[in-house]
Design goal:
Elements: E1 8-11, H1 17-28, E2 33-38, E3 49-53, H2 59-63, H3 65-68, E4 74-77, H4 93-118, E5 124-129, H5 140-160, E6 165-171, H6 191-203, E7 208-210, H7 213-220
Parallel strand pairs: 1-2, 1-4, 2-3, 4-5, 5-6, 6-7
Helix pairs in contact: 1-6, 4-5
């Protein structure tokens, strides 16, 4: 078990949606301090929550992290963005690049900066927020970016094992956040329930967390014909 007591965590995109819910759940499990990031952070009335400005697409912004959060032993890469189209061929190359810059290169930038800080602790953890769309076609650049992050998480799990940092990859379908507000007819999971699954997995040092039935079903069909790996709404 991974003991959360008195630890400090960083949650990117931690002031709204899933990030805010994960922050709340971490604090409920005796985490001492949570740094939450946003491009324009809001003040917090909770002294355990420390807002900091961060743009994960900016190398200069990310390079300042070690000076701000030298005590962190938990990193949750939650910040992300959707794509303007669900079709690759209908997307501009600029939009595809922007999605990957946030969802793929953003977490890589943050991990590269914080890996030495995580190594100072006997045990530490990284949580990467993937998606059921890591495995299912039909959402264009967004799904492709989450598939890339899934692969990266699998590689980092091996690379960071020796320093005592484990990597948890989280897969979920649709959560009830601003990002999915334009999808009124799909079943959504409340952010608080997602957060419980995420932190349960963190405490269990789980390599993978499958939040919902859709994610578990998608995982089961990965060994089947690739034609079956399609999002059906």
């Amino acid at each position: 078990m991974f003991d959360l007591t008195s630890r400090s965590a960083l949650v990117t995109g931690g002031q709204r949606g899933l990030g805010a819910a994960i922050t709340t759940e971490l604090l409920a499990r005796a985490v001492e301090r949570v740094y939450v990031t946003a491009r324009a952070p809001r003040p917090s009335t909770d002294p355990r929550i420390v807002p900091i400005a961060l743009d994960v697409t900016s190398p200069d912004s990310v390079s300042q992290l070690p000076d701000l959060i030298g005590d962190v032993s938990i990193l949750v890469n939650n910040a992300g963005r959707s794509a303007s189209s669900t079709k690759i061929l209908a997307s501009s190359l600029e939009d595809i690049q922007s999605v990957f810059d946030t969802n793929v290169f953003g977490p890589i930038r943050v991990i590269q900066q914080l890996a030495p800080i995580l190594a100072r602790h006997e045990t530490s953890a990284i949580v990467n927020m993937h998606s059921v769309l890591s495995w299912l076609a039909g959402t264009g650049a967004y799904g492709a970016s989450k598939a890339a992050l899934w692969s990266i998480s699998n590689s980092l799990r091996l690379e960071l094992e020796a320093q005592g940092t484990f990597v948890t990859g989280v897969h979920l379908s649709f959560a009830d956040t601003e990002m999915t507000a334009g999808l009124p007819h799909v079943k959504k999971t409340s952010p608080s329930l997602v957060a419980v699954s995420v932190v349960d997995g963190l405490e269990a040092s789980a390599a993978e967390v499958l939040v919902d039935a859709d994610s578990r079903a998608a995982k089961e069909i990965l060994s089947g014909p690739v034609q079956g790996l399609v999002l059906r709404m």
